[in-house]
Amino acid sequence: xxxxxxxLLLISFLIYIPVNFVRIKLLRRESFFLRDRLGRGxxxxxxxxQSLWIHAVSVGEVISLQNLIKKIKEKHPAxxxxxxxxxxxxxxxxKEKLTDADNIFFVPLDFKYVVRKYFNTLRPRVFVLxxxxxxxNLLREAKRQTKGxxxxxGRISSRSFKRYSRFKFVAKKILKNIDLFLxxxxxxxxxxxxxxxxxxxxxxxxNLKSEVNLPILTEEDLLKLxxxxxxxATNKVIVAGSTRKGEEKELIEAYSRAxxxxxxxxxxxxxxxxxxxxEVERICQDFPFKVMRRTQVSPNKQWDIxxxxxxxxxxxxxxxxxxxxxxxxxVPWGGQNLLEPAFYKKPIxxxxxxxxxxxxxxxxxxxxxxxxxNKNKDLDEMFLIRDEESLKxxxxxxxxxxxxxxxxxxxTIKA
Length: 415
What we know:
alpha/beta, 2 domains, 18 helices
């Protein structure tokens, strides 16, 4: 299996080389940092110290580990913490947020000899994998060279479960390299066991993302932020976070209908991926609204639709919103994290496609903290903000529901 996988990986790598060139030179996109993922400039200064290696995919996972890494450092101050991520945005956020990590780098390409070079250089005692990104050679080498391999904040979406079930033999072979599975829900535990993981090594510890570590913003802070963004005190703000292709047009159309009834509405769009900022701006310009980017806005510059074209600010924008919409849910992308608006007591709306966050979505809907948008009429109602007291009640319920989900960090450290 590993030989066949490595062969396919090599073919993919040979395809990616020209793709990477085109991205950089012709499309002026960000690099895939292939040389860095081959181990260029790998820091070996801490190789002889006690260390662990934590890997997370992208921004959401990186932020969710901030508190855990801090707690580990407090408990084991002499340990070196190596941290790897996959995406460019994940790297930027990691360097900004994970101040307790000693060594931050891109995860190696999953070739056996490249992965082995990383383990030989870093010599981690423990390898920790966040959520469910399974690199076969990485896990295999981790099993060989460390004293323990942990999957933390583990989950299996319904889509992933179907895929793993279809290739159960392969999934089981990869997963046997993991010594302990710390998962989010009983359903995740059940799914791992159905794939073939021994129930004795699977433990439910809740969701690390529930341990939201965000700054407390005072009314004065919010007023200052609104002033800097040219948001009048009388206007109502709808923030649509982590939106995906196919959602912005639908959201703007609903906004247009609502604004014809209620003029004091403002819409903030935060695309999930930075490479879509230009595309989203073009979509907005098809409508008769004043459109501006976050990086262009300043006091006294009026706008109807603002595009959040920065990284790491979405939580603050949720904080100033009157209504929050969680993207990736009107289209079948599986949804996005809804805990940031919950932290700031905001009413939460999302579409029917929340497969990747099904447990959280169900919890928040059941508690009255969130509503599902199934049709255009529901979108219109979200934008119109008719019953403000009801929305405030939703926001309070969101915070209470979030508080009820705490405890994952301590359980993970104990494990």
